[in-house]
């Protein structure tokens, strides 16, 4: 099996803050809700076990409070540390619009404009489709997620979807550079420009403009409904997909479902100055919280992406290899993958895998 | 006292009454698949007569585009229509014909039942769900502005009336078609006011249908779960854009647009059933087209009209022909002609009588 490559990440964002005194990095950790806290603990314990030179600054965000102090503290911490790992923060959508989604606030305040998710079929995970390898680049700050709504007349609500040239060029450039660095041959832009002629039309125009500067990478476009139809019938045809915010939400969830579910795929959010890592499909997992049954794979792989970003590839490789071998070779599966194992069983198996490969620390 | 029995039964056989349905064959492969449907209906002795009309955009006195008045008058009279694919010319100066039809008859609900076809194998089996999509507003209101150079805003419109109407229709559909649950699909965590309004209207409608189970689910969660286990879904109701994406996603689960039926419900009892695939100009006139999508839409139409026995017979004949695999059109994996496939279904329908 070809494992997810270690040098998974692009170099064109600003490098992370260098290691501080003692050669250790400080990373903001936001446990979140649902299964977040238990998985955050597992990451911390595994990092301690592996002697990873990372100290976590724990910032709790209480999503039930309407005041924004908690989330502002988190943002300040991430500005200070430059990197963060987080669980999903629940949004009570019955509260009035003044209460904004905490996750979205983080992304927009820190201008984490690119969301990257790599969906790969794993041997040993039973799915209907095989040989999927799709990288999804999703614009993360504007589009339908602009949260600009108003009730112009009682009973009539308008919600604004904003597409700008600057952000579209930026995300397209990010996509093409990432494609080049990861050996991707083709980018498919997903849109609905036949209906939203100006909005998605602008997005497409920007993508085509950037594409012309990368003649080594093929570029084509696909309407979003056709894209989802193709994904469920023949997902192997896609290499890298690039799209605005909402379609990105749909496509990334479809792809995650195709390769085995929310427990397997990590996600990264990149901005010029900051990086935030999380489980790719951003689920809270409220119904399985505190039952020791959540799948820790996505969160652990996200922590490996974090280590790659901090330029600690040896640790990243060690943890990633152990995590993936637990899923693909040992086949210690939690309930979401059809197995009977508990979270702690999986963690134990990962620790065994790490210990069996040699010394706990490796020189960098 | 003796009660004499009348020699003739007093009950009136409703199915013997002929109903007229407006038929719009459409472009490309439209005419040949419409002919196929007409032949199958004749073989099944369905009490329907067809009123064939065409739909080309004409400019009215005020300068606005409209459908031909005799087609409009036919639909208003017959109330039920069956439509083949219409081509959307790129630079014709007039809006798409589908959009014109939608606006003329206020077709507010798009209904797509997605059921796995035994014999047409896809990675997904046992799919049996219905997507009900609000068809008039939402993200497809077509209102866009360039604010300043390089910044575009598209407006998504959600109104109380349209949301109430579609929610009510969804529950009515669930009751009339023996479905047990309705799920509202939304993204109210991000679009609090607009999807929040939609959700509120769905919740209000749910109050009047206590027998139907009502749930709410985020769009991304629906997508995630749909590709892993589509059997957990029953009836889904949602605004325009999510409906567009999800209905095509579900069509992909059962085998694509070539086998998916669709119905559009309007105000004043108007309903137009259609195939949602394209006009396939490359095979038009070559007797190669697959009439399944239009046929299943016609079956949906029969159910809507209350002709359940005929609907069931034709559907069974169609599915059995596909399952049998001997006579299949090219897109279904065979090499039979459209007319041969149609003849096979006609034969089966007559045998099922």
From TrEMBL, chain A:
One of its GO terms (molecular function) is magnesium ion binding. It is found in: Mitochondrion. Gene3D superfamilies: Isopropylmalate Dehydrogenase (3.40.718.10). Heterooligomer of subunits alpha (IDH3A), beta (IDH3B), and gamma (IDH3G) in the apparent ratio of 2:1:1. The heterodimer containing one IDH3A and one IDH3B subunit and the heterodimer containing one IDH3A and one IDH3G subunit assemble into a heterotetramer (which contains two subunits of IDH3A, one of IDH3B and one of IDH3G) and further into the heterooctamer. SUPFAM superfamilies: Isocitrate/Isopropylmalate dehydrogenase-like. Keywords: Mitochondrion, Transit peptide, Tricarboxylic acid cycle. Its main location: mitochondrion. Residues 26-350 form the Isopropylmalate dehydrogenase-like domain. GO terms for biological process: isocitrate metabolic process; tricarboxylic acid cycle. It comes from Gadus morhua. The keyword DNA repair does not apply. This is Isocitrate dehydrogenase [NAD] subunit, mitochondrial. Signal peptide: none annotated. Belongs to the isocitrate and isopropylmalate dehydrogenases family. GO terms for cellular component: mitochondrion. PROSITE patterns: IDH_IMDH. The keyword Mitochondrion applies.
UniProtKB/TrEMBL annotation, chain B:
One of its GO terms (biological process) is isocitrate metabolic process. It is found in: Mitochondrion. Residues 20-345 form the Isopropylmalate dehydrogenase-like domain. It catalyses: D-threo-isocitrate + NAD(+) = 2-oxoglutarate + CO2 + NADH. Keywords: Magnesium, Metal-binding, Mitochondrion, NAD, Oxidoreductase, Transit peptide, Tricarboxylic acid cycle. It comes from the Eukaryota. Its cofactor is Mn(2+); Mg(2+). InterPro entries: IsoCit/isopropylmalate_DH_CS, Isocitrate_DH_NAD, IsoPropMal-DH-like_dom. PROSITE patterns: IDH_IMDH. GO terms for molecular function: isocitrate dehydrogenase (NAD+) activity; magnesium ion binding; NAD binding. Pfam families: Iso_dh (PF00180). Catalytic subunit of the enzyme which catalyzes the decarboxylation of isocitrate (ICT) into alpha-ketoglutarate. The heterodimer composed of the alpha (IDH3A) and beta (IDH3B) subunits and the heterodimer composed of the alpha (IDH3A) and gamma (IDH3G) subunits, have considerable basal activity but the full activity of the heterotetramer (containing two subunits of IDH3A, one of IDH3B and one of IDH3G) requires the assembly and cooperative function of both heterodimers. Heterooligomer of subunits alpha (IDH3A), beta (IDH3B), and gamma (IDH3G) in the apparent ratio of 2:1:1. The heterodimer containing one IDH3A and one IDH3B subunit and the heterodimer containing one IDH3A and one IDH3G subunit assemble into a heterotetramer (which contains two subunits of IDH3A, one of IDH3B and one of IDH3G) and further into the heterooctamer. Belongs to the isocitrate and isopropylmalate dehydrogenases family. This is Isocitrate dehydrogenase [NAD] subunit, mitochondrial.
């Amino acid at each position: 099996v070809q494992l997810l490559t270690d040098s998974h990440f692009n170099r064109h964002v600003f490098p992370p803050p260098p290691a501080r005194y003692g050669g250790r990095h400080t990373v903001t950790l936001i446990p979140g809700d649902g299964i977040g806290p238990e998985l955050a603990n597992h990451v911390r314990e595994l990092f301690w076990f592996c002697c990873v030179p990372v100290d976590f600054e724990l910032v709790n965000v209480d999503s039930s409070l309407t005041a924004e102090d908690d989330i502002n503290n988190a943002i300040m911490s991430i500005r200070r540390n430059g990197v963060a790992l987080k669980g999903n923060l629940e949004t009570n959508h019955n509260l009035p619009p003044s209460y904004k989604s905490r996750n979205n606030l983080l992304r927009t305040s820190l201008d984490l404009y690119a969301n990257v998710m790599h969906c790969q079929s794993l041997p040993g995970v039973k799915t209907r489709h095989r040989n999927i390898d799709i990288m999804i680049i999703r614009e993360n700050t504007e589009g339908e997620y602009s949260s600009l709504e108003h009730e112009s007349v009682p009973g009539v609500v308008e919600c604004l979807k904003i597409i700008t040239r600057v952000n579209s060029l930026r995300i397209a450039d990010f996509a093409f550079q990432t494609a080049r660095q990861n050996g991707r041959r083709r980018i498919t832009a997903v849109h609905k420009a036949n209906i939203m002629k100006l909005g998605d039309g602008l997005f497409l125009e920007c993508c085509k403009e950037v594409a012309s500067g990368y003649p080594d990478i093929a570029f084509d476009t696909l309407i979003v409904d056709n894209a989802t139809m193709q994904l469920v019938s023949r997902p192997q045809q896609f290499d890298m997909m690039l799209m605005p915010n909402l379609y990105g939400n749909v496509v990334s969830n479809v792809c995650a479902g195709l390769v085995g579910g929310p427990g397997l795929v990590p996600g990264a959010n990149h901005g010029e100055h900051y990086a935030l890592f999380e489980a790719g499909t951003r689920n809270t997992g409220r119904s399985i919280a505190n039952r020791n049954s959540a799948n820790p794979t996505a969160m652990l792989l996200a922590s490996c992406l974090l280590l790659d970003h901090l330029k600690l590839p040896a640790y990243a490789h060690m943890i990633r290899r152990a995590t993936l071998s637990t899923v693909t070779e040992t086949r210690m599966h939690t309930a979401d993958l059809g197995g009977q194992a508990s979270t702690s069983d999986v963690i134990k198996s990962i620790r065994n895998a790490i210990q069996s490969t040699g010394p706990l620390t490796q020189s960098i | 006292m003796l009660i004499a029995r009348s020699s003739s039964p007093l009950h009136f056989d409703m199915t013997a009454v002929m109903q007229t349905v407006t038929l719009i064959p459409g472009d490309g492969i439209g005419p040949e698949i419409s002919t196929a449907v007409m032949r199958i209906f004749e073989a099944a002795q369905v009490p329907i007569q067809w009123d064939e009309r065409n739909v080309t955009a004409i400019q009215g006195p005020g300068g606005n585009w409209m459908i031909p008045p005799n087609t409009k008058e036919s639909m208003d009279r017959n109330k039920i229509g069956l439509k083949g694919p219409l081509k959307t010319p790129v630079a014709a100066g007039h809006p798409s014909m589908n959009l014109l039809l939608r606006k003329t008859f206020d077709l507010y609900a798009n209904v797509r039942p997605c059921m796995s076809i035994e014999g047409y194998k896809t990675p997904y089996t046992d799919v049996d769900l219905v997507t009900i999509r609000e068809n008039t507003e939402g993200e497809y209101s077509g209102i866009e502005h360039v604010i300043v150079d390089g910044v575009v805003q598209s407006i998504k419109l959600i109104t109380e009336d349209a949301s109430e109407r579609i929610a009510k229709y969804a529950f009515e559909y669930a009751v009339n078609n023996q479905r047990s649950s309705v799920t509202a699909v939304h993204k109210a965590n991000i679009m609090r006011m607009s999807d929040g309004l939609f959700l509120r209207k769905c919740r209000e409608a749910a109050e009047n249908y206590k027998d139907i189970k009502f749930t709410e689910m985020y769009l991304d969660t629906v997508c995630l779960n749909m590709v892993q286990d589509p059997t957990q879904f029953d009836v889904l109701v949602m605004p325009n854009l999510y409906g567009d994406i999800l209905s095509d996603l579900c069509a992909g689960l059962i085998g694509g647009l070539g086998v998916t039926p669709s119905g559009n419900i309007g105000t004043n009892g108007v309903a137009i059933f259609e195939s949602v695939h394209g006009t396939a100009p490359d095979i038009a006139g070559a007797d190669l087209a697959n009439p399944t999508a239009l046929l299943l839409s016609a079956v949906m139409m029969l159910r809507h009209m209350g002709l359940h026995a005929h609907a069931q017979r034709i559907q069974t004949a169609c599915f059995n022909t596909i399952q049998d695999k001997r006579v299949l059109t090219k897109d279904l994996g065979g090499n039979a002609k459209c007319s041969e496939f149609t003849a096979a279904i006609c034969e089966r329908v007559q045998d099922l009588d």
